[in-house]
Amino acid sequence: MWEYAPAPESRDIANLKPNYRMFVDGQFVEGSGEPLKTVNPGTEEVLAEVSTAAPADVDKAVKAARRAYDRVWGRMPGSERAKYIFRIARLIQERSRELAVLESLDNGKPIKESRDVDVPTAAAHFFYHAGWADKLAYAGHGPDPRPLGVVGQVIPWNFPLLMAAWKIAPALATGNTVVLKPAETTPLTALVLAEIIQQADLPPGVVNILAGAGDVGAAVVSHPDVDKVAFTGSTDVGKTIQRQLAGTGRRLTLELGGKAANIVFDDAPLDQAVEGIVNGIFFNQGHVCCAGSRLLVQESVAEELLEKLHVRVSTLRVGDPLDKNTDVGAINSREQLTKIQELVESGDAEGAQRWTSACPLPDKGFYFAPTVFSNVSQAMRIAREEIFGPVLSVLTFRTPDEAVAKANNTPYGLSAGIWTEKGSRILWAAQKMRAGVVWANTFNRFDPTAPFGGYQESGFGREGGRTGLEAYLDV
């Protein structure tokens, strides 16, 4: 068996500091909240202490954002706003290695994913939206689209820097100012992004970043002077926010959970499909809301595909997120690891056939070996609930109609995948899938020019592309 020599990236590149402060009105300041300690999920060591916000700090940040909107940013020509946004994009590129290492330390994802996916795509979102800043009148949203004002944004822990870029870039391009709350367990790259924003000479108050737990996010969402809320996270919290804002007249977009179906028809190129399946569920440890966590395989090729899948998954290397050879890194927190373990135990109890990779796991840290369940029925929890981990549930079907019916048998609707050599079948199935994004013969491909979002309990509104601009405009 081929053995890989360790190839660790240097953690010194992250320029890790013992303390990080929140960013308000163009300055890094101490928060009034109880400081939190952010932990490296790969080793369980404390990385840094982070200053957090109290309600009074949220109020200061919103007032700073309102002042910047009224006096500077909302009045600034789009061509001038674009210069700042381009500058942020270039600085992200210049500090890309530092950001990638810091993201892997704080989040647990493999360095090759931080380096090759998260950071370049974050920069791409700023580049793309900078290009729109002076062209909004030609985006198809009316002749004179206007910004909304102050935007409150709350992001999750699975893609900390990338989610910040998804939220901040379109808000700035459309002339809004921002108060952003990163996830409690992964605040560091968002606060380094604040350094980049300061380095880019963005006017004070245009972007404010507050660390803290859910109470800080709730204070941002409920603040009466926030004109629009953008939230990415769990469906339960999204429902709470929607109830809270109902009837207030404030705008809202939600990007929530998912339980995506990945359909493999009998004419699909199986080796290619296996690679797409692995990428669809084991990328970022399965911490992906659009992960292809339900695999639907046509019965005639199910046995062959499962054999190939087991062989391929058994080659995945689980371990140190900073090792360039690592395929599956650490689960983000002990709380999330416990949730994954509980749902996997429910699969065992309900009679699904469990196969787990025999790969060795590190002694310290939060790790879970890639797992595949077969003989899964639609009634099982592992087929219905979002596991948000490296766990795949395999179901079978006989006809294309049955495949679509099973794929749509979910309260979610964020994404789906189709594997077949027939272009007509791709178009037929894609039209029938109740999902915001449908990939054909690939999976987990993202581009800032393409809108992303869901249906049903996966949320509403779109991020990215020309369509995504509308969420930040009064049209």
Task: Record keyword descriptors for this entry.
475 residues, alpha/beta, Aldehyde Dehydrogenase, Chain A, domain 1, Aldehyde Dehydrogenase, Chain A, domain 2, seven-stranded mixed sheet, six-stranded mixed sheet, 15 helices, 20 strands, globular
Précis, in short:
Helix content is 39%, strand content 17%. With 475 residues, the protein is of the alpha/beta class.
Description:
By secondary structure, this protein is an alpha/beta fold. The protein folds into two domains: 266 residues, Aldehyde Dehydrogenase, Chain A, domain 1 (3-Layer(aba) Sandwich); 180 residues, Aldehyde Dehydrogenase, Chain A, domain 2, CATH 3.40.309. Helices cover 39% and strands 17% of the residues. It contains 15 helices and 20 strands. The strands form five sheets. A seven-stranded mixed beta sheet has the order 14-15-16-13-12-17-18, sandwiched between helices. Helix 3 packs across helix 4. The mean pLDDT is 97.
